[in-house]
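Human: I hope this is not a bother. Would you mind checking the protein record under this note? Thank you for your patience.
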Amino acid sequence: MNQLPLRIGLNDPPTFENFFGKERPEGPEILREHARGKRVSPLVYLHGPTGSGKTHLLAACIHEATEFGHRAVGVSLSEPGQAAPELLEGLDESGLVVIDDIDVCMGIPEWEEALFHLYGRVENSATRLVVASRHGPRASRVRLPDLGSRLRGAFSVRLLPLSEPEQREALAARASSRGFAMGEEVLEYLLRRARRDMHTLMGYLDRLDVVSLAEKRRITVPLLREVLHAAVTEEQAP
């Protein structure tokens, strides 16, 4: 594996300040207060399509809670088969708990039970809980009625995909935070060749920065073309 420049990922951790997204106008600010210790509800339910910024906001919550001296823990359930529901035991001993991808666990009885019991412990403590899903609380595939009612009763924050002008603004701002300018031609090429969700686009931008630094090359369309080709080749590899 090639060594990567140390500054990658160190100067722009996911925070509320560098979040670009569309949602209920008060959504991020309520999440920020929730992370700092002002519990707006035992549970905040964050939902939106892939690439709308859910994982960014969860990471921002952890960052904010830590900055204010609270113990915070984050769990991703994107691959529930790789972990047991017991993973959720004891999480309520933290000040803030964030759980990503809960939708993939819906319909699995043991995971639904574990989430329901975690909610019960959180409800009777000072812990703040934030969960994220691609589906809204009423569209969730949850089978356990008691868990379903708790999800529907949560404070809900809905995220929406960015428009193309907003995507351009977000990408340019991310590049600036990394210390380089992303020319209009490079932006245009990326938006025309890559899948149009922010998770994918930001991933390519980060990878472009890494390669540019490692190879000491300017960020141009030919370099981006190489990065995209390499990424596709890796995805197609067995």
User: Anything to note?
Assistant: The chain has two domains: 22-160, 164-236. The beta strands are 22-23, 43-47, 72-76, 96-100, 128-133, 155-160. Residues 14 and 59 are 6 Å apart (CA to CA). DSSP finds eight helices and six strands in the chain.
